[in-house]
Amino acid sequence: MKLQISHLTKYSYQEPVVDSVNEIRLSPRTDSRQLCSTNSIVIEPNVSLFSYEDYFGNTVHYFNVVSPHKELVIESQSIVETSEIHQKQASQVSYNIERQILESEQFQNKYAEYLMETNYTGITPQLKAFCKEAIDPTKAESVYQLLEQISASIYSNFTYDVDATHVQTTVEEMLRLKRGVCQDYVHLMIAVCRLYHIPARYVSGYQFIGDLNNSDETEVQHASHAWLEAYVPLVGWVGLDPTNNGKIDCRYVKIGHGRNYGDIVPIKGIYRGGEKQDLEVTVDVKKVND
């Protein structure tokens, strides 16, 4: 499926600001599941844009706005072709063998960065209590089945609420609130995966939520989305979306991945000037007919 993605971010400042230094991650990846054929980023005020590849292989752009300005606009336009790959989910070995691989020193050293606790994904007594109550590993016959169970448990035990949390919310806070947004659902599932020694990484991107059979534009409001990829022994990275309790398909467009949200923040920066600012973000994902 071919998708056209527009991501517009606008900062408005009450007073002119200067020396704005910014880093953005808004360029979709190209991998076995998707092809990013075009990606353009326009900055207002007009400045030079530079790029590099970060530790996780994500494309990062950065720029500076030295002169005084009361508005900063960042617009990313992309065309991405996604495929409906039915990825292998379970290996041909027993669950016991999969667990032995996960718990081996060699495996844990190789995927250490996706097994460690972070400020977002702490393995706390509250997390262990949730897992004991909501998840039963003995009912799983493979690592992938355990992942499906974790996703389903999170989906059924928490309420999606855009007003409940913020970008700094931790797993401990979400467990207390019992509600959150996609970022929180993903952080929680990552923490649970790490408790069971399954490498997991945070994925940032978009999800097309329109009608696949209708080429007309819809009034559906899109937004950035997040899901996770977990590593199944002898299979590889597989994607799951605990917010919707679903598998990753042609509707999903990946920008990048990291250990948690902090590694894959779409836009972050600093500037000199007044603290008061307004932020407006508009995302549009459309199906494109050839």
Automatic annotation (TrEMBL):
Residues 174-244 form the Transglutaminase-like domain. Gene3D superfamilies: 3.10.620.30. Pfam families: Bact_transglu_N, Transglut_core. This is Transglutaminase family protein. The lineage of its organism: Bacteria, Bacillati, Bacillota, Bacilli, Bacillales.
